Amino acid sequence: MKRLSKSLTDLEAQYDAIVVGSGYGGGVAASRLARMGLRVAVLERGLEILPGAFPDTLWEASRAFQAQGRIGQMGDETALFDLHVGDDISVLVGCGLGGTSLINASVALEPDARVFDDPVWPDALRAPEALTEGYRRAKAMLRPRPYPEDWPQLAKYEAMKSSGAALGTPAKRLPINVNFEAGPNAAGVVQPACNLCGDCCSGCNTGAKTTTAMTYLADAVAHGAAIFCGIGVDHLSRAGDGWRVAYRLTEGKRDRLGEAFLHIHADTVVLGAGALGSTRILLRSREEGLALSPALGARFSGNGDVLGFGYNNDVETNAIGMGAQSMSYDASEGSRPPVGPCIVGGIDRRDTEDLADGMILEEGVIPGGLASLLPPVMAAAAGAFGEDTDSGDWLPEQMRELTSLVLGAQHGAVAHTQTYLVMSHDGSDGRLALDGDRLAIHWPDVGHRPQFEKVADALRTATKALGGTYVPNPLWTDLMDKALITVHPLGGCPMSDDPGQGVVDGDCRVFDGAGGHHAGLFVCDGAVLPRSVGVNPLITISAVAERAMARLAQARGLPLDTDSAPPPLPEPPLRPIGLRFTEKMGGQMTGTDGREADCHFVATITMENAQTFFADREAEAEITATLTAPMISDAPLTAVDGRFKLFSKHPTVPGAKAMEYTMPCVTAEGRPVLFVGRKTIRDDPGFDVWADTTTLSSRLVEGHDPDGPILASGTLTIATRDFIKQLSTMEVLNAPNIAARLKTVSGFARLFGGKLAETYL
Question: What is the pTM of this model?
Answer without folding.
Answer: 0.93
